[in-house]
Specification:
- Chain A: Pfam families: Ras.
- Chain A: It comes from Hyaloscypha variabilis (strain UAMH 11265 / GT02V1 / F) (Meliniomyces variabilis).
- Chain A: InterPro entries: P-loop_NTPase (IPR027417), Small_GTP-bd (IPR005225), Small_GTPase (IPR001806).
- The complex is a heterodimer of chains A (242) and B (620).
- Chain A is α/β, with parallel strands linked by helices.
- Chain A has ten helices and six strands; from the N terminus they run αβαββαβαβααβαααα.
- Chain B is an alpha+beta fold and 620 residues long.
- In chain B, strand 4 and strand 5 form a beta hairpin.
- The longest helix of chain B has 22 residues.
- The two termini of chain B are 51 Å apart.
- Classes of the chains: A alpha/beta (242), B alpha+beta (620).
- Chains A and B meet through helix 2, strand 2 and helix 10 of A and helix 17, strand 9, strand 11 and helix 18 of B.
């Protein structure tokens, strides 16, 4: 296993993506995992499971990402994916105000039902559809950007959710906040790095396998099956040819 | 084009005379050699042949081996009847004129003419396929003479020409009938959206009307749910009209099944609160269109489950189903396009399997069984779009329509494929149980580039929490298959692709065939290449198959063998309790060559049955 040779401690973090359909959840993941982008991506059915490592100065985080489908009919399955997740990405489309409302619902549900201490990032995607230069809306963008954006509508700016509005909501709820473009890659890695940094050291378990069982309370309790199969899981993945 | 009930029927005048005399049997192959044929040996008497069994007679006449498939016993002759309802034997002048008129109408209409065939003595056909019976010969002879009248109405020069060009491929010439397919290449093009500022509406409407096939789904309250072509603005008006028409007949307690406008056939099917409409100019039968609509309904059930669907409409009859179905339009469309392109699997409601050795399949089955977790319901290995192995509980088989849904979701629609990663997909398989979801584990496809070379191990469980268990099982299976060499075997088989017809029967004139094993609900076919590689050629082939299928499956049809001669192809349909067989050859192939090829294919299938088909599968 790659992690075994790395000098830095490595730990797995379960991350779930939630949000309305067609806001770009899968595209964010695709950008993060494969550094790739597909126009007109077909909707996800059910959920997709992906993994990607994130290197921090002091440790390596292996994200186990559950990319869920945004359609209403899959909502009842969501608890299965956010249960025991240490982090969540709640995504909205900053050209579609209703998607922010949906995002707020997800945040509320997570705060109510997910593990306490879950790290939630609110992400406004499709920054490429706005007119502002992407550099101006960097991570935790300046307050001023939002107001400026509102004024830019006349130039064909598709932005409908101001940075300020979403940001103030994120601050209220104690969420990380980013505006991203999966298409251009703007801020995508930053989101995941910020989440990795925000995961408290105490909630991290050691390397996968035996360590996982002694990890966070939540994880040990529900996914004993996963933990049992964890080590072999990794090995076979590397040997897998199809 | 004509119906014919004898593959033993002769092409030339000599044959006809000889056969109709009732006392001779033809020998030799008559591929274009009719003119020079030596005098025919005497035919055994009827009585002798009636008593003779196929094996005992065959050694005497090995040259007859390929010609028994349309054998008709004397009993059958008594029950022969024509589509127009007349009955009788072929020896009377009256029936002769009838069959002639049938031929003529067939030729002008371009449709396959269902002509009644007697039942084959299937025990002989299937087991030995060796022998003709005297009554057959007699009947064939009479029929051949009828055919001959039609043939000789063509100029001798034409005959000469055709006899020199046996190798013409089907659909080589552009047929006037095919003009209806002239836009088929654009059938799957997107229709532009109607520009709000107007201007292009007429053009868009023309585009919409130029489509040869439409599928509409609406609720009984008249809410649009799905349309293959055209956006909501465009179709809303039509949805309203259709709803009115359907409701009118619904109200009269005489539900509308379908109607025809010009060359366009409309078929309506009602499932609970949903109306399904298929509009086709491709010439499918009502039953076939209805089966396609049923598949769309199954796709909706697979998304929602029946109880959810009913509940939605019970609570609010004017529910807009588009929202609950959000994101599945692509699945419906890819299913619809599969039908429009023409799918042998959908036509025959059968599965196609990857051909590997029985022992190799056995190893793969055992690998699956050994790695099986308790949570597993169904396990499938699919390679190149074909089934390699199935593992299933003893009491549940896998329904072809369910498999069609799975294949459509995974291989036709890009949805699951595009994102990479492993998928966990809730899916209702209505053939299994339309009341709840199953969960399907679909491994990452990052390494495969296309459907054709993809080897997918799909595992299905009733437990929604069993993702990691199935993932583990899949990893174990892959490891084992790699270790015992099965993976390479599968890859090789996929790379080799389907055989060509000449691989199956060396030297045959058959260009394509479909063979469905009824007991196994599976079918086999050769490669579409080289003759049917293009979208259009494939559609024309499939249209032909649809016609043959429709004729042999028509209600109250006792048709067992159908021989169709078209301007640009000849084809044969042959059904027995064991199999259904359809094949096609170039327009100048003789009937006997066609029949001979058919026999050879059937014999090959029998020999290779355990390789071509999955028999039993891995059952636990």
């Amino acid at each position: 296993m790659a992690e075994a040779t790395a000098p830095k401690p490595s730990s797995s973090v379960k991350l779930v993506l939630l949000g309305e359909a067609a806001v770009g959840k899968s595209s964010l993941v695709l950008r993060f995992v494969n550094n790739d982008f597909q126009e007109n991506k077909e909707p996800t059915i059910g959920a997709a499971f992906l993994t990607q490592k994130c290197n921090l100065p002091t440790r390596t985080i292996k994200f186990e990402i559950w990319d869920t489908a945004g359609q209403e009919r899959f909502a009842s399955l969501a608890p299965m994916y956010y249960r025991n997740a240490q982090s969540a990405l709640v995504v909205y489309d900053l050209t579609k105000p209703t998607s922010l409302i949906k995002a707020k619902h997800w945040v509320a549900e997570l705060q109510r039902q997910a593990s306490p201490g879950i790290v939630i990032a609110l992400v406004g995607n499709k920054l490429d559809l706005t007119n502002e230069p992407s550099s101006s809306s960097n991570a935790l963008g300046e307050d001023g950007d939002g107001e400026a954006a509102d004024g830019e509508d006349a130039d064909g700016d598709a932005r409908k959710v101001s940075t300020a509005e979403a940001k103030s909501y994120a601050e209220e709820e104690g969420l990380l906040f980013f505006e991203t473009s999966a298409k251009l890659g703007t801020n995508v890695t930053e989101v995941f790095t910020a989440i990795a940094n925000a995961i408290p050291e105490t909630s991290l378990k050691g390397a996968r396998g035996p360590g996982a069982a002694s990890g966070t309370t939540g994880r040990a309790e529900d996914q004993s099956r996963v933990n049992l199969t964890g080590p072999r899981d990794n090995a076979s993945k590397e040997g897998c040819a199809c | 084009m004509t119906g014919d009930r004898g593959n033993d029927a002769a092409e030339g005048a000599e044959d006809t005379r000889a056969a109709s005399s009732g006392s001779t049997v033809r020998t030799g192959d008559h591929d274009g050699e009719d003119e020079q044929r030596p005098p025919l040996p005497p035919r055994p008497s009827l009585l002798q042949i009636d008593l003779a069994t196929a094996p005992s007679a065959s050694p005497k006449r090995p040259s007859l081996q390929a010609k028994p498939t349309t054998a008709i016993s004397s009993v059958d002759i008594q029950t022969l009847s024509f589509p127009d309802g007349t009955r009788g034997t072929f020896s009377t002048p009256a029936s002769r004129s009838v069959s002639e008129s049938v031929s003529v109408s067939g030729a002008s209409g371009g449709q396959s003419t269902p002509s009644r065939k007697g039942r084959n003595g299937s025990e002989f056909d299937d087991a030995t396929s060796l022998m003709s019976y005297a009554p057959t010969l007699r009947a064939n002879g009479d029929l051949a003479s009828l055919l001959d009248e039609e043939l000789s109405s063509q100029s001798p020069a034409w005959k000469l020409l055709s006899s020199q060009a046996e190798s013409v491929n089907p659909f080589e010439k552009v047929d006037y009938e095919a003009l209806s397919l002239v836009n088929f290449d654009h059938e799957f093009d997107e229709i532009e959206a109607v520009d709000q500022k107007g201007g292009n509406e007429e053009e868009v409407l023309l585009q919409w009307k130029s489509k040869l096939k439409h599928y509409l789904i609406l609720s009984s309250a008249g809410k649009p749910i799905y349309s293959r072509h055209g956006d909501q603005n465009l179709i809303n008006g039509y949805i309203g009209i259709i709803q009115t028409i359907i409701s009118f007949f619904q109200g009269a307690k005489d539900p509308l099944m379908g109607f025809t406008a010009g060359k366009t056939r409309f078929v309506v099917s009602t499932d609970g609160p949903l109306y399904f409409v298929a509009i086709s100019r491709l010439g499918e039968s009502d039953a076939q269109l209805r089966a396609q609509l049923e598949a769309l309904y199954m796709q909706i059930l697979s998304t929602l489950t029946l109880p959810t669907l009913m509940q939605l409409f019970t609570n609010r009859p004017n529910t807009d189903l588009r929202r609950p179905l959000e994101g599945t339009e692509t699945l419906l469309s890819s299913l619809a396009d599969t039908f429009t392109r023409g799918s042998p699997s959908a036509l025959l409601s059968a599965l196609e399997c990857l051909k590997i050795r029985k022992s190799q399949r056995h190893v793969i089955n055992n690998t699956l069984l050994k790695a099986r977790t308790e949570k597993l319901l169904y396990g499938l290995i699919v390679a190149g779009g074909r089934l390699v192995s199935v593992v299933r509980p003893k009491r549940h088989s896998l329904h072809p329509s369910d498999l069609q849904l799975i294949f459509n979701m995974l291989f036709e629609a890009g949805s699951v494929k595009a994102g990479g990663g492993e998928n966990w997909i809730p899916v209702c398989l209505p053939g299994f149980n339309n009341r709840g979801y199953l969960y399907m584990y679909r491994p990452s496809t990052a390494h495969s580039t296309s459907r054709e070379d993809e080897i997918a191990i799909l595992l299905i469980s009733a437990d929604k929490e069993s993702f990691f268990e199935l993932k583990q099982m899949r990893d174990d299976v892959v490891k084992q298959l790699e270790k015992n060499g099965s993976m390479d075997i599968i890859k090789t088989a996929v790379r080799e692709g389907r055989p060509s017809t000449t691989d199956v029967v060396p030297g045959t004139q058959l260009k394509h065939f479909l063979y469905k094993s009824r007991a196994n609900v599976q079918f086999a076919m050769p490669s579409f290449l080289p003759h049917f590689g293009s979208l259009l050629a494939r559609r024309r082939l499939m249209t032909l198959y649809h016609n043959l299928h429709a004729s042999t499956h028509a209600k109250h049809s006792h048709l067992k063998v159908l021989h169709c001669v078209n301007r640009d192809s000849v084809s044969l349909a042959w059904t027995t309790p064991v199999f259904e067989f359809y094949c096609i050859a170039g327009p100048n192939a003789s009937r006997s060559a066609l029949a001979q090829g058919a026999n050879k294919v059937v014999q090959w299938m029998k020999r290779e049955e355990e390789r071509v088909f999955i028999i039993g599968g891995a059952v636990f």
